[in-house]
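Continuing the batch. This is chain 6 of the set; chains 1 through 5 are on the previous pages. Same settings as before, nothing changed between runs. Recording input and output for traceability.
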Amino acid sequence: MGPSLASIGKLDSLSMRRAVLVERVESAGPEQSAFDLEALFASSGRGNEEATSAALAVATWIMRSDRPDVACDGHLLRAHHDPVLDSLRASISSDETPLVAHVLLQPRGAEQSRPGRGDGAILVQDLHALTRADLLREAERWGGDAPNFAPYLPSHEMELLVRALRVRGSGAWRQLGELLDKPRLRASIVIRMAAARALPSEVAYALALRDRWMGRHDVRAALAMNRATPPALVGALLPTVGVQIASLVAERARFPSVRAAALAFAGRRIEHARVAAELP
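Output for chain 6:
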């Protein structure tokens, strides 16, 4: 037997972890890989840091493969589904590998999209949907500290974000990418974007495609908690966000499949914490 998938988490860069992950899955085959991923997600659920880092590689692999078609500068950027991931999905049994099923078999497709206004528009509204006070109150209910979410943005940064996202026409995807790739872009802006109540699926996937932002727990948590985030993205993120966020997702989820997945991850972690607390 080779090393566990959790060992991938030792690698420094997310792109390297993702490349090694795909090689391992392709080499092991879909049936064995499903069991390997089940063990990885269970280990991540027990708070193992290396397993969580490896699970993040799985999440970004899924999100990159699931990116829908988008219009950009007069062209249609077609989705490029990874055949290795497609083969893995076809072999999953919810009875044998329930956590893997929750992560990889969430609904996908255009029916889950929340388009912006106008032809090809991407528009984010209600950027104050999630406050630090809201998260602190929720975290207190679960006996822990709130994740490090940013407070309200200064007005000039809020104006920058609104102006940058209120773009219309086929250049919207490119302009959004240019914003997210700015070296000086503050995480507080990205967190507010991920938490926007009217988050279009295009914006969610634009965030998901960028390792710089997916490497941050606060951005992942904001995206996972957002009821407008496509289910496939939330499912991919659940093994990486922790018990508090999984529990909040279970309470707030708009889709039954997302609620069931969040309960599976939150319940596993809560049970592990209870057993650990009872040990002498």
